[in-house]
Amino acid sequence: MATPHIACEPGDIAPLVLMPGDPKRAERIARTRMEGARLVSDVRGIGAWTGTIDGVPMTAMASGMGVPSLSIYATELFTQFGVERICRVGTCGGISRKVAVKDVVVASAAHTNSSVATIDVPGVSLSLTASFDMLRGAVDAARASGKRVHVGPVYTSDLFYSSRMDIVPALDKLGTLGVEMEAAGLFACALAAGKEAAAVLTVSDHLFDGSGDLTSEERESLFQDSLEAAIGALKA
């Protein structure tokens, strides 16, 4: 049964979903990495493509930007379409000096200023974490490819343009690897639905050293590194 945001039947969506932020990137995954890919939904320009990757049925569908957008799609996928696992695949800005541009980050948890960490249990800030088996699968896949991979928490911000840069040193001191805008929402949706989630990110720029002036070709190459790790997470 279709929802307001996904116009297809439950069987049209695979149990395993790759979720970049950008709809064009979801289409690129389908066209370059999927076999037998078919467009099963395209509401509001958010295409859902289903096919197989390495013989395993998967769907590639974008989340849009930010926790609110991702939460709509992830909730509907988990609760209405029989999805068991979603892996966010995208980029982040580096915070920790241990990470460098072009490295892969596998998020073990997501700190956040979003209300998703507090809204369900007043007075408690939930620990929003990735699923262990998916986490292990992503790390194994990234390491097997020879890429530099880091495992640790990221910071999910509700604001892309924020004046609160004063919190960054504290996040760094607490071992936060990078900043992005969706992982906490995905982890929260998975925990609420009793399903599994992970986030694999490529460091596209760095908050401290100012690096990250990459060409479009370099960005696509970087994305491929995180994509293969995300596929490993879903297959684990």
From TrEMBL:
- Keyword set, alphabetical order: Glycosyltransferase, Transferase
Q: Which organism is it from?
A: Tessaracoccus defluvii
Q: What is its EC number?
A: 2.4.2.3
Q: Name one GO cellular component term.
A: cytosol
GO biological process entries: purine nucleoside catabolic process
Q: What class of enzyme is it?
A: transferase
Gene3D superfamilies in alphabetical order = Nucleoside phosphorylase domain (3.40.50.1580)
InterPro entries from the UniProt entry: Nucleoside_phosphorylase_d, Nucleoside_phosphorylase_sf
Q: Boundaries of each Nucleoside phosphorylase domain copy? A: 16-234
State the protein's name: Uridine phosphorylase
What NCBIfam families does the database record attribute to this sequence?
PRK05819.1 (NF004489)
> Does the keyword field hold Protein biosynthesis?
no
A single GO molecular function term of this UniProt record: uridine phosphorylase activity
Q: Which reaction does it catalyse?
A: uridine + phosphate = alpha-D-ribose 1-phosphate + uracil
Q: Which domain of life is it from?
A: Bacteria
Instruction: Specify one Pfam family.
Output: PNP_UDP_1
